[in-house]
Amino acid sequence: MDSPKLMNLAPKTATVERNGMEQQIPVEQVQQGETLIVKAGESVPVDGVVLEGFSSVDESALTGESIPVEKHVGDTVIGATINKTGYFKMRATKVGDDTTLAQIVRLVDEATSSKAPIAKLADQVAGVFVPTVIGIALVSAVVWLALGYGIEFALSIGISVLVISCPCALGLATPTAIMVGTGKGATNGILIKSAEALETAHNIDTVVLDKTGTITQGKPVVTDILCGAGIDRLRLLQTAASLEKLSEHPLADAITAEVGKAKLPLSPVEDFQQIPGQGIIGR
User: Fold this and answer.
1) From the candidates 210, 224, 232, 271, which is the catalytic residue?
2) Model-level pTM?
3) What's the rounded Cα separation, in Å, for the pair 39 and 57?
């Protein structure tokens, strides 16, 4: 993902609260310290802190975390992440070029424009090779002129030597490969901080992963159902899914999807209650 694609992650507008009124404004006009309103399904416009409300925010685009993160009053939210459920007000703490997304874009730009050691070597070789080739082409043209051939023939000989010998690919292929490599990495969620890091990556023999969602599907699924003594597995799944059907939690989707595979009917639920950060209650 190049810089424009990364910037497209950020929303174009924001809902700001000014003088007690809600206003839709371009995200570039959001000022630090202003109160913003983020509704379910909307993207967080800028970096900030939750002032009011509760929500689950999908931060996978920036952090790789597959499960939406619950946000309470006082928690930090990052621009370009998606508010999956709930409604909250936030105070803008970082806007414009100070946001996390803008800093990632800047890193990608720096990596794209930086030179790897092999590129520097290519430049050094080209710096010697190109003048040499130009010199040989001129000498070739002069020699054929001295032998009595016409200017047109001698010039075509010089151009032929120049076109065949000039190391254009040497100077162009390396930076192009670096630009494509860093761009493809960003597209797949891999941030390459410099061209040198990209070049030395072929020496890697161990990869250490610190979170889920990195090499997994990126969404939770039911893998096992462990029952106590005397409890039927399908009955437990049916009961859990009946309760979770009313929940907006991301793990609830995994449980309801599992009961859908088993094609079990859901039971009616009474006295349902969702307790933020703890779970659900129902009968």
Assistant:
1) 210
2) 0.57
3) 11
